[in-house]
Amino acid sequence: MTEHFRALVIDDRDGKPVADFRELTLADLPDHDVLVEVMFSTLNYKDGLAISGKSRIARRLPMVAGVDLSGIVVESRNPDWRTGDKVVVNGWGMSETEWGGYTRFQRLKSEWLTRLPDAFTLEESMAIGTAGYTAALAIDALEAWGKIRTDAREILVTGAAGGVGSVAITLLAERGYTVTASTGRPEAHDYLSSLGATGFIDRSELAAKGAALQRERWAGAIDSVGSTTLANVLAQTIQSGAVAACGLAGGADLPATVMPHILRGVALIGINSVTVPHAERDRAWAILAESLDRKQLASMTTVEPLSRLPQLAEDIVAGKIRGRVVIDVTK
Ligand SMILES: NC(=O)c1ccc[n+]([C@@H]2O[C@H](COP(=O)([O-])OP(=O)(O)OC[C@H]3O[C@@H](n4cnc5c(N)ncnc54)[C@H](OP(=O)(O)O)[C@@H]3O)[C@@H](O)[C@H]2O)c1
């Protein structure tokens, strides 16, 4: 086993969290019960915030960054996990309170591990990553709401060309919904059409403050943007529709009224991917296995080496990344 290995570590420098590559040994890792050889990680918006220092994600330092990982069990003190098992870990506080995936080896609590679904390779599981699995959690939540009307009505996906948005579009289209994409990148329309979007609105149309109730249009929505965009989406959602709120790429505020909820019965459903129990995770992975076309997944994914993370972090926070990025931690 490799004696020394490289990891991306966030540490305090003059009172600020700064990310840098550092050589670690197995003795540096936390004393959790399963040692995993990490093969792939990924880049999520939250990773971008953590590495670029644009937001304080790590709540203790030093912190090995990386919200997700996939790899192979090397040692286990838990009989449920054996050497050679292929595993995926999404969230569970990695990069916040627990050391994460931007490293060749990591020790993890056995209860955080998900067995790699048969439908996917280790690399594909990170092409999905927290962003894709959050898109599946959002679809599960909308379908569990049980009142989404799909007869000639559209589902809106905001932040469409991003990671959550791209996976949400392809899953929704595959499940028979009519999908409209809200994007600030007109040049991404062909890409979004190839994923299954059939309508487009420019994200600026949702960015300006609007009336408390607007023309009813969306049967449901998956929102990665928050703020005024989410308020407008709620105001445009039809009777008994639902909006799954995942993100804050446009802001963490919500300048909305109760009118869509009390006059149209619209539901606002919050999605938290980090600490959801295994039953919900399993349902999300089942949706992915059932409805995610692997060719579509490949078409929205690029693979990058660990060494490119600092630049990629700046790019995702600036909204320049399209689709999903897998991080090959062996390079
Ligand atoms: N709740 C959870 O557990 C959970 C899990 C995963 C992600 N998230 C959150 O979900 C959001 C999306 O994550 P991601 O990984 O998909 O990020 P991403 O790949 O960067 O996608 C975000 C997209 O939002 C749009 N956007 C960016 N800045 C914007 C702005 N100022 N105003 C309006 N739209 C803007 C862009 O889409 P266009 O270029 O198409 O306009 C961008 O591609 C993030 O806020 C992330 O923190 C939450």
Task: Summarize this structure as a short list of keywords or feature phrases.
alpha/beta; 2 domains; 7-stranded mixed β-sheet; 9 helices; 28% strand; 331 residues; Rossmann fold; Quinone Oxidoreductase, Chain A, domain 1; binds NADP nicotinamide-adenine-dinucleotide phosphate
Q: Looking at CATH, which topology of the largest domain would you report? A: Quinone Oxidoreductase, Chain A, domain 1
Mind telling me the CATH class of the largest domain? Alpha Beta
What's the total helix number?
A: 9
Low-pLDDT sequence parts: none
Write out the distinct hetero groups bound to the structure.
NADP nicotinamide-adenine-dinucleotide phosphate
- Straight-line distance between termini: 16 Å
Strand residues, percent: 25-35%
Number of DSSP-assigned strands: 16
| Mean of pLDDT | 96
Largest beta-sheet characterization = 7 strands, mixed
Spell the H/E element sequence: EEEHEEEEEHEHEHEEHEHEHHEHE
Q: Kindly provide the radius of gyration, computed on alpha-carbon positions and rounded to a whole number of angstroms.
A: 20 Å
CATH architectural grouping of the largest domain: Alpha-Beta Complex
Integer count of domains: 2
Summary of the model, kept short:
With 331 residues, this protein is α/β, with parallel strands linked by helices. It is built from 9 helices and 16 strands. Strands 3, 5, 6, 7, 8, 15 and 16 form a 7-stranded mixed β-sheet that branches. Strands 11-10-9-12-13-14 form a 6-stranded parallel β-sheet, with helices on both faces.
Structural description of this entry:
29% of the residues lie in helices and 28% in strands. It is an alpha/beta fold and 331 residues long. The chain has two domains: 5-116 and 300-328, Medium-chain alcohol dehydrogenases, catalytic domain (Quinone Oxidoreductase, Chain A, domain 1); 130-270, 3-Layer(aba) Sandwich (Rossmann fold). The strands form three sheets. Strands 3, 5, 6, 7, 8, 15 and 16 form a seven-stranded mixed β-sheet that branches. A six-stranded parallel β-sheet has the order 11-10-9-12-13-14, with helices on both faces. A three-stranded antiparallel β-sheet has the order 2-1-4. Helix 1 (45-52) crosses helix 9 (309-317), helix 2 crosses helix 3 (163-174) and helix 2 (122-145) crosses helix 7 (278-291). The mean pLDDT is 96. Bound molecules: NADP nicotinamide-adenine-dinucleotide phosphate. The site of NADP nicotinamide-adenine-dinucleotide phosphate has 32 residues, from helix 1, helix 2 and helix 3.
